Amino acid sequence: MSIKREKEEYLEKLWGMKEDNTDDLNTLSSEMNHADHDRIMHELEMDNLIQINDAKVSLTDSGEDRARKIIRAHRLAEKLIFDALGGNYEAGACEFEHMVNSEMVDSICILLGHPRECPHGRPIPQGECCKRALKTAECAVIPLCEMMPQQSSRVAYINGQSNQARLNKIGTLQIRPGAMIKLEQKTPSFVIQCEGADIALDEKVAADIFVWKECTRNRRACFQEDIAAQEGICKQRSGFGFMKRWRGGKLPN
Amino acid sequence: MATQKQRLKIGIVGLPNSGKTQLFNNLTGTYNVVANAILTTISHKKTTCEINNYLCEITDTPGIHELQSQTFEEASTRDYIFGDKPDVLIVCMDSNRLKQSLNLTLDLLELGIPIIIALNAIDETCRRGILLDTRKLLHFLRVPVIECIALSGQGMTELKEAIFQVKGIKWEFKYGSVIENGIDQIVQKLPPGMPNQRKIAGLLLLNDPYIIDFIKTFENITDENILEIQTCVNQTRKEFQGNIARMVNTRRSQWVDDIANEVILQQKITPHVFEKTFARLCRRPSTGIPILLFIIYLVYLGVVNCANVIAEWMDTTLWLPVQNLINTWVPAGFFNDFLIGDYGILSLGLANAFITVLPILSVFFLIYNTLEDIGYIPNLCVLTRRFFEKLGLSGESVMPLVLGFGCKTMATLTTKSLQSKRERYIAIYLIAFAIPCAAQMGLNISILGRMGLQAFLIAFSVLIVVEIIAGLILNFVLPFEEKGEFIQELPPIRFPTMKAVLVKTWYRMIWFLEEAVPVFIYAALALFILDKTGILMASKIFLSPIIQGWLGLPLEMVDALILCMARHEAAAGLIIKLISEGLLNFTQCIVAVVITTMFVPCFANIMAMIRELGTFRAIVMTVIINASSFVIAGCLNWALIYFYLGT
Fold it and tell me: Which of A8, B179, B379, B569 lies 20 to 30 Å from B265 when distance is taken between CA atoms?
């Protein structure tokens, strides 16, 4: 029987231990509590994925590479399940990580707009796509600060899970995944409307709130760059008297 | 007739700016300041009154969002609910913010205290095209839901009746097996007599920063117990393996959403609300700054053209006859001086308060209260945030500073909610330094208005520049700290009702008279004694190099500075008198206003500073402020002389 899966679980655990700054062999064996512990450890060492010194265990360079991929898949999956579906992310993600290839992981990452943290607040290792910082059209979420004024959209997720105080504050104002918000203005401070209340934010907070792109109702297409192309579609005109006519008519080049 | 039954303890809780104090005023028949702004109430107010023949003790609390607290005020409200054990809680729900209110209500329902929901401001919700199905809300929550409009007092009779019919319902909201297990275990570790154990256990799990302090206040609790509780909490957190707060919040918001979806009936088309448009215009820099300047100009016009005229009229018609009368009755001499001399208790005390200061303040407060009820002032923080950021203040502290233009003492007290010590220090300093409070502002405008718009512009630009430089210096000197973030709920713009504004102005006047008149009289008496014993003259001669030489002011300004220590308004009255006697010219007038604005913050403000910073630091700060006010005013004097007289 292949123990590939168990090995991957071990690598994942070791990555987590590294994040928690522990490298104790006993902690690993007691927390994994697996019947085949010795065999798995042996195979991992044979594959040159881990190295054991006395009671310490650590990932080798190649082991770290493998673990990063697994962790990335796992946390992105959590993110996807939690944000998009709101389900039990832990169970689903555990299965998920063993099945997907890196292309698929990358496309999920792009879809979610290269999130930096999983729902637990742990960092998601960056992939190639994040490093190239692809902002392709497929990106399904955008940060609040990239929305246009007067647009409204649904919140996808909020970065910065480790800052619990801020998260609570935002949460009590009902800014949370699934809530509809409307961006009132961007300068000098961001003002959004959420559940009947007006809330002012600074850029730092606005950059951490992500909204679903397809939900954004574009009510001010007139002001976008492709203004000429949308001229015909634009229904809502703003401005008084002659300004209105001017927008409705032909635009000066 | 009040029955001899035990008095009923009623607490009013709700979101910030949801109208709790208005409800409190309606129920008790007293008056406390109500404003369309957050942080209006910053401490508990307790009043005993009679409702439907029962003796009730009603408590008004600062606004909270949920029982889990982030700031000191929120924690104090929670400590009231946990510690004082009110018999009935009136939840003041802002119907515009139903979801937020429901979140809080859920928290309170878990406590098992009888709850009445007062659904406030339903008229506004209707205008926004949203209808709330109150019967469905009643059906879901199983507690009385009373629709009301607190501002006009509608729904109060129903509310009063409901208080005596309400029964407690215990809600158990489940959060899943791991968390429930953890809560059960923590509850066992808590001391047996403690109320609301389940809720406290929940708050411990959510890592509330203030709940441990609350537990420590209980008797028979040892450090060991606390350690035990802590380990139990950590154990549960480890077992859960996830973010408990997020899990709990998700469950709760699910509940809130389910109810809100059923209760809220929304029209497809949202009607255009003028208030919204106005709010937008106020916050946008391109329109907001002109609006701000226009409002300042309006205030200036109002005070100069209206208040000054009234004050003069009152002086000639009311005060002069009295003065003449006393002059005929009491021959010139000691008693004449005592009554209506330069430092007479009637002239410098009563007439100063009633004839000179009161008309100016009442006109100014009328305008200021209107702005307050519109909700304009808190919305300013959107416009001014970047400006304050340059002074090393993050978004959090913008609100206290903006509130400083209302009352410095209250603004100083609100700095308690700031996380960063450094920002608190800067904010308290800047509030105490060159920000004029509402009363000072009104009187300053009145003084400077006599010299023309130019004087007003010069004096206030100097104050702004001073504030900026002070901020920059503090920002540079104090060690760097991580900046707090700016997340600020803004009150909606509302049309003020004439009645509310008038009532508020009336009470502010009454409070001013109650507080200030004795101080005015004592200060006049003190000056009179100093004058008669010759100490005043001696000190004037002693101070003349500073006053005349450095500041270029007449020696009579020493009196004003002494009065300033007692109360700023008294000094303003004296300055107005000096102007009418022709003792102050254009430049002197500006210097006088600048120095009195910066000189010694009022007594209440110093007390607030001591409370926030400790005695030593507060006194050091006061000394620094006074010293710098002399230096700055002197520099200003020489600069003005150079520009106006030198050329």
Answer: B379
- CB contacts of B129 in chain A (<8 Å) are none
Q: For residue A245, is it within any domain?
A: no
Q: What is the CATH number of the domain that holds A111?
A: 1.10.10.10
- Out of A25, A41, A59, pick the residue that ends a domain: A59
Considering only CB atoms, B103 lies closest to which of A90, A121, A172, namely A172
Domain co-membership, A164 together with A208:
yes
In this complex, the residue of A161, A187, A199 whose CB is nearest that of residue B490 is A199
Residue of B nearest to A166 (CA): B485
Task: Say what the pLDDT of residue B507 is.
Answer: 93
Boundaries of domain holding A174: 141-212
Interface of B with A (CB under 8 A): 65-66, 68, 70, 94, 96-100, 103, 128, 130, 207, 241-243, 245-246, 249-250, 253, 257, 279-280, 283-285, 381-383, 385-386, 394-395, 485-490, 492
Q: Which of A195, A201, A238 to mutate to test the interface with B (most CBs of B within 10 A)?
A: A195
B351 Cα to chain A: minimum distance (Å)? 46
Token pair recorded at residue B58: 């009603």
- Chain B: give the shortest CA distance to residue A82, in Å: 11
Do A157 and A203 lie in one domain? The reply is: yes
- Helices assigned H by DSSP within B155-304: 156-165, 177-189, 197-205, 211-216, 223-240, 244-263, 274-283, 285-301
| Number of residues in chain A | 253
Are A188 and B385 an interchain contact pair (Cβ–Cβ within 8 Å)?
Answer: yes
Q: A202, A208, A209, A240: best mutation site toward chain B, by most B Cβ within 10 Å?
A: A202
Supply the pLDDT for residue B11.
92
Which CATH number covers residue A168?
A: 2.30.30.90
| Residue of chain A minimizing CA distance to B107 | A172
pLDDT in tens, B377-414: 888 888 888 888 777 777 677 888 888 888 888 888 88
- How many beta carbons lie within 10 A of that of residue B200, not counting itself? 23
Number of structural domains in chain A: 3
Domain-located, residue A40: yes
A interface with B, Cβ–Cβ < 8 A, is 86, 90, 119-121, 161, 164-174, 176, 178, 184-185, 187-189, 191, 195-202, 204-205
Terminal C-alpha separation, chain A: 71
Element (H, E) at B91: strand B88-94
Q: What is the pLDDT of residue A239?
A: 36
Interacting residues of A246 by C-beta distance below 8 A, sequence separation 6+: A239
What's the fold here for domain B8-165? Rossmann fold (3.40.50)
Q: In this structure, is residue A227 part of a structural domain?
A: no
List of long-range contacts for B28-33, beta carbons under 8 Å, 24+ apart: B28/B58, B31/B503, B31/B507, B32/B60, B33/B504, B33/B507, B33/B508
Are residues A169 and B70, on separate chains, in Cβ contact within 8 Å? yes
In angstroms, what CA-CA distances link B386 with A157, B260, B381, B397? 27, 36, 9, 12
What number of C-beta contacts closer than 8 Å exist between A and B? 112
Look up tokens 């008309």; give the residue.
B359
A102-140 residue pLDDT tens: 777 887 787 777 777 777 777 888 877 777 665 554 567
In a domain, A150, yes or no: yes
Tell me: the pLDDT tens digits for B586-645? 888 999 999 888 887 777 888 889 988 889 999 999 899 889 888 999 999 989 888 876
Domain ranges of chain B: 8-165, 177-242, 285-478+517-645
CA distance linking residue B485 with residue B322, whole number of Å: 58
Average pLDDT, chain B: 86
Inter-chain residue contact B243 with A165, CB threshold 8 Å = no
Instruction: Please list, residue by residue across A47-61, b when 16 or more beta carbons sit within 10 angstroms of its beta carbon and e when fewer do.
Output: eebbeeeeeebebee
Which among A176, A185, A172, A133 is positioned nearest to A155, based on CA atoms? A176
